[in-house]
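Render this sequence as a predicted structure.
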Amino acid sequence: MELSVEKKNIAIVLCRPKYPGNVGSVARCAKNMGISRLVVVPGEEPLEEEAMKTMSTHFAADLVDNIRWAESAAEALAPFSFVVGTTARTGSARGPVLTPRAMAERVVEISQKNEMALLFGPEDTGLSNDEVRLCQMLVTIPSSPRYRSLNLSHAVMILCYELFVAQRQATAFTPRLASVAEMEGMYDAMEKLLSKIGFLNPQNPEYWMAHLRRFFGRTGVYAKEVKIFRGICRQLDWYAEHGRKRDGP
């Protein structure tokens, strides 16, 4: 059986957009491709509702009316189990990146049972390193080396279109992936434990944590597995503190 992306489980998340007209255009692009949820983390620039609705047209004004506002990327992404970030900057520090088409093919099955976000940064600077760390997958849009910059709504449309047309053969049932909030709790527990036992350099703990985030993001972690990892961290933390095993399970 052929599966398509479950678009009701997809949301567009905009971090610190600079221009209200771009937010409205994004709403229109999303609705064109069957995506009906928009989350915005406002930046310093005010986002006037009238300007957003002008560019969204009456067709997508309901998406503007129902924007979920968040104070940070972490808050915006907390409910989602899988986050695809967009970046024009590539290199070893950011890890491997996919094309929009390759991304869409990979997330067809993930989208069936999991809440998924497409994360976009501000028009001038893109996502920060801290925001990239919240992503399980990164995408870059191939473009001419003479001019790589894309309008925000154009980038959104390209990714949404690839999701709209993507199909994949169904396989076995996939359990629920851990949410961003659950993963961040696991990473926090891991960082504290690895710092306590001297594995992480206190001057630069993010060096190894970035590699661990990339590893778990690449493999995909189920909610049940997060509970197991956190249980292991608690047990090891206790052992590091007391030097012996705790009685009982």
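Summary. The chain has two domains: 2-169, 180-242. The radius of gyration is 20 Å.
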